[in-house]
Amino acid sequence: MKLYLSVDMEGISGLVDPTFVDSGQHHYTRGQQLMTAEANHVIDAAFYAGCREIIVNDSHSKMNNLIIEELHPEAKLISGDVKPFSMMQGLDDSFKGAIFIGYHSRASMKGVLSHTMIFGVRHLYIDDVAIGEFGFNAYLAGYYGVPVIMVAGDDEIAKEARALIPNITTTVVKEQQSRTAALCLSPQKSGQLLREKTAQALKKIDQVEPLNPPQNPVLKIEFANYGQAEWANLLPGTHIEKDTTIVTYRAKNILEAYQAMIVMTELAMKATFC
C-alpha cells in the first residue's frame, strides 16, 4: 500500500500562535521539532500497519519545515518551494489513500490559526461551496480517485472534515480556546493518539470514498481588500465581481482551479495592507 501524507503546521499540538509557525519567530524551531515528531508517529504507525511506501509532502509556508535528519528513515520527503501543486505536490492515482496532519480550519471560521492559504483571504468557494485548504486538497485527491482517510488538528478542522467526507477518521490533538490559544495534548499523548487513529484509518480505508470534484469548477476568492483583488485579477481569465472583493475564475478541471488559486493568492500578497 502506498500512502500520501500532507503535513501542515498550524494544527500540530502545542503550536498555538504565529511564534511557532513563522520562521522568523522565536518558537519556530520548537514548532519544527513538534511537527516532525507528529509526522513520525503517523509514518511509523502506517508502516507497522503494512504500508510499503510513504511520501511526505511538507505543506507549510515555504514548505521546508520538516527536519529531514529526524524524519523516519523509510519515508520520502518532498521539501521546498515552488511546487506546482503546493500542499498536494506529488500526488497521483498510484496512492491508496491520503492523510492530512497539522491542518486547520478555513478562513473566517473558529479554530487555531484559521486561514485559507494567505491571511488576506476571507472566503474561498468552488461552485459556491465554501471550502478551505482541507477541502480543496481533498478535491485534488479526489480527482485522482484517492480518498482522504484521516485528518489531524484541532476540533474545528475535525468538524469541517466530517462535513465533507463521511467516515473520515479525525484526530483532535488540541481544542481551540481562541484563534491563538488551545487546550493541547502533551506530545506523548498526541503521539499515542496519532498512532491509534492512523491504525484505525488504515483498517477502514475501503469505507471512505474520494471527494469527487465538480466538472468545470468556478473558483471564487473573496479577499480582505480591493488591492488584493486587483492583483489577483491580473491572472488572465479572472474577473472581479462588481462592488465586491471577489475574484472568479472558471477552470476546465480542479487541477487548473487549484493552480489558479495558487497564482491568485501569490499575486494578492503583493498588496501591502490587509
UniProtKB/TrEMBL annotation:
GO MF term (any one): metal ion binding
Keywords: Aminopeptidase, Hydrolase, Metal-binding, Protease, Zinc
Nuclease recorded as keyword: no
CDD domains: DAP_dppA_1
Positions with a binding annotation for Zn(2+) 2: 8, 60, 104, 133
InterPro entries linked to this entry: DppA_N (IPR027476), Peptidase_M55 (IPR007035), Peptidase_M55_sf (IPR036177)
Residue positions binding Zn(2+) 1: 8, 10
Residues at the catalytic site: 115 (nucleophile)
Protein name: D-aminopeptidase DppA
Organism: Desmospora activa DSM 45169
Lineage start: Bacteria, Bacillati, Bacillota, Bacilli, Bacillales
